[in-house]
Structure formats: C-alpha cells, structure tokens
# Entry
Amino acid sequence: MSEKKKTTMEILREKVEELLRTDRLPHVWCPGCGIGIVLNAFLRAFIRAKMDPNKLVVVSGIGCTGRTAGYVNVDSFHTTHGRAIPFATGIKFARPELNVVVFSGDGDLFAIGGNHFINAARRNHDILVIAVNNFTYGMTGGQHGPTTPTGAYTTTTPYGNPDRPFNIPHLAISLGVPYVARWTTYHLMQLQNSIYTALHRKGFRVIEIISQCPTVYGRRNEMKNPLDMMEYFRKFSIRKDDATAEEMELTYNGKIVVGVFRDVQGIPTYEERYEELLRRAQK
Amino acid sequence: MKKLAENKPPPKKRGTVKIIEERCKGCWYCISYCPTKVLVVSPKLNEKGYHPPELKEDPPNKVCIACHLCELFCPDFALIVEEIK
Amino acid sequence: MKPGYYFWSGDIAVAEGAIFAGCRFYAGYPITPSSEIAERMALRLPQVGGKFIEMEDEIGSIAAIIGASWAGEKAMTATSGPGISLMNENIGLAVMTEVPIVVVNAMRGAPSTGLPTLVSQGDFMQARWGSHGSYEIISYYPDSVQETFDLMLDAFNSAERYRVPVMFLLDAMLAHMYEKIYVPPEDSVERVERKRPTKPPGEQLIYEADEDLIPPMPRIGDGYKIHASGLTHNEKGYPELTPQAQERLVRRLNEKIRKHQEKIWKVEEYRTEDADVIVVAMGSNARAVRTAVDAARNEGIKAGLLRPITIWPFPYKYIEKYSVDYIVAEINYGQIYHVVREYADNKVELLPKMGGELHTPQEILHALRRYKK
Ligand SMILES: Cc1ncc(C[n+]2csc(CCOP(=O)(O)OP(=O)(O)O)c2C)c(N)n1
Ligand code: SF4
Ligand SMILES: [Mg+2]
# Structure
C-alpha cells in the first residue's frame, strides 16, 4: 500500500486528537460556542511549540470555559470558582519545571477570582492565562459579569447594564504583566500564533480572547445565532498593537481593538526570585 | 535562482473534508467561512439532533483547496481536512 | 532540627513538627493567633529547600496547597476561624478530589472577628462540616506544645495515608504558650507517603480505589494524565452527574475514613478506670480538668478525664465504654456535648464557656462535687 506522506497540517490535526479526551466528545459547549475554537487554537499552538505534554498542566476554574480542563488529555484540574490561578500557583511554585496554563472564563478570573489575578500578576508567576471573555456568566444562564459592556442586556441587567466593564489588557499591563494580548475567536491564526509566542515567554502571560456565547449573551444582544457573533468580531475588530488604554476599552457592540499589547522579556519570575532566595537561605 | 522559485504560485492543493458527524452541533461556521463553499447543510440529523455539514464538491469551481480553515473554525473538533496528492 | 530540648510556643511546634513530618510547602495569610506559624515557616522552609509563599488571602492559600499536593509535596496552611470560613469551599474540593493537606486552625473567640487573641473552642463543628456536603474528615487537637509537635506527624501521616485534608486544631492559648519540648532524632519516626500508582500511565484509572477504599495518587508530570474535578466523578476522574455516581463516590469518601477510624483515634484516658463521673475536655481546656480531677479524687470523688485527641472521626467507642455520667467542658455553647450525648448511656452535663478564657480547675471541681456519692 502506498501511504502518502502526511502534511504538517494533517499531522497537527492528528495530534489535536491525541491531546483531547476524545472519549468525552462531543463536549458540553453549545452550538457555535467560541470556547472550542480557543481550545483548538491552544492545542495547535502547544503542538507547534513541541513541548512535552507530560509536563503540561491545565487548570480551570468553574464555568463553561472551566470545563476545558476536562477535555485536555494532560494533567488537568477543574477546581473551584475563581481559584484556578492560586491552584496553578501552588503547582508552579512547587514544581517550576512544569508548564502551567490556566484556562478559564472572564467571571472566574476577574470577578470572583479577581484578587488572585492581580496578585499573581504582581508576583509574576510563570503561568500562562488563557482568559475567555464572552461578556457574561455563561454557565449560570447569562447574568452580567465584570466584563459585560455597559448597556448590554443580560438576565440580571434587563434594563441594560449600568456597570462598567474591566479593560483587561489595560489591567494586566498596569500590573506589569510581560505578555498581554487580545484576540477574538475570528482571529484563528493570530490567536494560535500569539499562544505559540506566549508559550515561549516566561512570567505571567495573559491572552484575552473575545468569544461568543450565542446561547445566553448573543441572543439578548441582537446577535441571535453563532454566525452573527462571529460576524460582529470579523467586522468590528481592528488590530492595533500600540493601542492606548482608551482604545482597548470595549463598548456595547462597538469596535474591538486586538493585538499584542505588551511583549517584554527579562522580568524575573516569582519562581526565579525564590530560587535565588533559596540559595541565600541555604548558605 | 532562489528568489524566483519563491515567487512561484503555490501548488494547487486539493483536499477533502472528513466529517465526524456525531461531534457536530450545527453552528455552520465551516459552511459560512469556506472560501470555496464546498460544504452545505446536510438534510440528515445526527444523534444529538443537529444537521452536520456535508461535502458538495462541484468541480472545477467548488473544490476543497485544503486551506484547513473549517478545521480551525470548528468549535467541536468535528472536521478533518485530508489533502489529496 | 537537631534532636534535643527546645523552648517553643505551640505555633513554633506546629511549624517545626510539620517540617519534621516532611512538609515542604506552605501557603498562608496571616491571622492571629496563627501568624507565628507562617513566620516560622518563612524562616525555616527555605533552609530545608522547601517553599513558602504568603498569598493574597486564605482562599488562595488553600487552593495553592491543593495544587502543590498534586505536584507531589506535603503541603499545609495555617489560619484561624475567619480564615477557615474562607477556606471551606476548597476544603470540600480537597475532600472530593482526595488531596492530602494539613490545615491548622488556631481557634480564637468567635463568631466573626470575635476575640482575636483569646482562646475559644467554637470551631469543632466547622472542622467537621464547614464545607458543604456530607463528608468525613480527620481532625486532631493537642493539649501541650510537645503533643502539638508530635501530632503534626500524625496529621501529615493520616493526610497522606487516607488522602484527606486533616484539620489540625489548636487554640489561642496553646498557640502562644511556651513549653519545653523534646525533638526526637530524624530517623526515629515513621513518615507515611501517599500510595503511588502501581500500574503504568494509561492503565491506571485516577480514582480506582484499592481494597482499603483509597485510590493511589499519581503526581503531576509523571504521565498519568490526571483529571481531577470537584464535580461528582467516576473512577476515571471524569464528571459523571448521576445519582449512581454520587452514591458510589460519596459513600466511598465517607467509608474510607470510617473503615479506618479505630486506627485514627487517639484518646487520653486519665483516671477513668474506676470513675463515676468523667469529664470530656479537649485541648488546653483539658489541662485545667486534669488538675480538677486530681483535686476531686483527693475529696473522694471518683472523677476522670477523657480527652479526645482525635476530634473527628469522633472516638465514640470510648464514650460507650464507660457507663458513667459525663460532663463535657468546652469553650463554646455546646458542640462536642451533643456528640457525647449521642453515645452516652447516662446523664451528660454541659459545662460551657463562651470563650476568652479556659475553665478554671475550681469551676470543674465545683461541677464534679455534685457527683460526690
Ligand atoms: C462560589 C461559587 N459561586 C457561584 C458559582 C456559580 N457559577 C458557576 S460558573 C459561574 C460564572 C462563570 O462565568 P465565567 O467565568 O465567565 O465562565 P463562562 O461560563 O462564561 O465560560 C458562576 C457564577 C459557583 N460555582 N461557585
Ligand atoms: S452557555 Fe454560552 S459560554 Fe456556555 S457553552 Fe453555551 S455558548 Fe458557550
Ligand atoms: Mg464568561
């Protein structure tokens, strides 16, 4: 039999299967939910980075995005709501040789887990944070959260959201986070490449992905089906790596500035600083 | 000359899309974003009650060019693009 | 620590006892009267190659030690009631995902901020069922600095052996009290390590329990592709949200402790053999009771002291063993009292105190005099 040689893309696709707990598919996410797209991009970036899957740890909190940990065929932890980052901190600090990735939702990371986010960022733990921002608490039925744009309609903002959302890249930059990027689920390759780059960087790295939750967010906000949300991302996003804080702000169904907003190297991580401390303590 | 070789148009790739129907949830991103429109909604329903896509190759216009875009868009890991030749 | 005699507080004994037991990871957030544990750990852990981190709060602290435990470390945190209240959700996670950790609670006057520097024993029930759900946990409570040091080894050993969080109770009195203590040689004790998988990756199901009802625990990074979730899960570790899976898992989580409870029980029986009346007291409070029991004996009252050192699972067979009247002297408004009542044949009297100070020997003696025959 003459087996044709597999192309890179075909090999990539095969390896994606290996990194999934395929016995658990189809997954729980709704039709058109963006989380699967982000997971796909993450797995491809990880495969391209040629890193050891046995050293990869994926930690998620609670939420639709939090279910990600349950689908990756590596050491993976589905923790408690908001606590993915400190859980990951414990793993990374205990065993710095591990490659620790937090994969969680906007509510999990920035509302209930907000304190952990800012402090872990401040300490610069060597952790990659994949933050899926779908503007809402998907899992609990679409209430407004810390990233819901002002004016948006959710189950707890029936008159429009009076709240102001976090500007996540700006927040991360203000905390000294060395790698900060934002993409949407429409930016398939940019997202994948960005994760690929971030996997090679050190320190606390934050990638925000604007993602669609057509089921409980989109349909209340003039985007009835998955495609409407994807089209919103396609039409309304602009790449601007040197965007100002104001430009990064997200408004209700307004433009989405994407890009790599910060990529600096050489900032010592918490784990590196502790290694140095250990040397002094043991003298 | 190296420069010239690089400027050659890429070889015409052809592919086909394998659909893992039981994983599909019918978002149809694949159908919408396929640049050559080789996928259409299948009339059949899968186990979960969704209409997966199906191939409707109609050469020479509607052929899969193995760009893999549908594979990247698919949130359900339901598509595999196989390259022919 | 070199073997020999030291003059330590309960807090220092906790830290040193933990290091002696093999603890190499501490995450915590300061709170009176447990802060000295963190301070000692910050000083000592780096010297033995361990990791100390001061987290942003108690929730982060417990999450971090659960992660560190999966990474293979013996890990602990220490706090007081307000901190335990914050940790409780994740104590449930550790119970559900079967993670060995030690959580120290130096009990202080409560509810709420209460009496930060003063003693109380109001957290027995919180230790038992502070997190939501029906589960078994192990809890120890020493009464001296020496016992604090010694019992830390039991705490880590039990956590590792049964894959369960151990709630180590202490009280404000004990935490800050200094006593002379003896540190034995390093190799004079048995240190238990969690069971490791015997099957290679791929064959080992992550939550496949052995006959002792305890599943072996793989370590992150060893290729086992662990999946752990606080959701009800099956032997693979995968969420399985059915009454059947819940029945299997929650029953086992309870049974794995109940099955071994007699090995976990530690109790001090002081002059109880011929007693007519036994005072049940725990922690520092038992010290006053011991004095009172001796005084009562001098007056011809056949009194004894029963001191559960293992608070949970409650060593109820020791209560059943004696057909006597019981007095439960505790620094709360009746917690262990209700448990004793469940198992006692005769009268059970509650001698409560709301907190701030221990019972005095005179108060206990006064109560005992009513049992003079
Ligand atoms: C302590 C606690 N509070 C509340 C909840 C309920 N809850 C589950 S998921 C969730 C929101 C998740 O939102 P997000 O992180 O944005 O994830 P998404 O579902 O949108 O992906 C909430 C409030 C919980 N599980 N635990
Ligand atoms: S509710 Fe929203 S976020 Fe959750 S799976 Fe459905 S589409 Fe995705
Ligand atoms: Mg969300």
Notes: Chain B has one domain: 2-83.
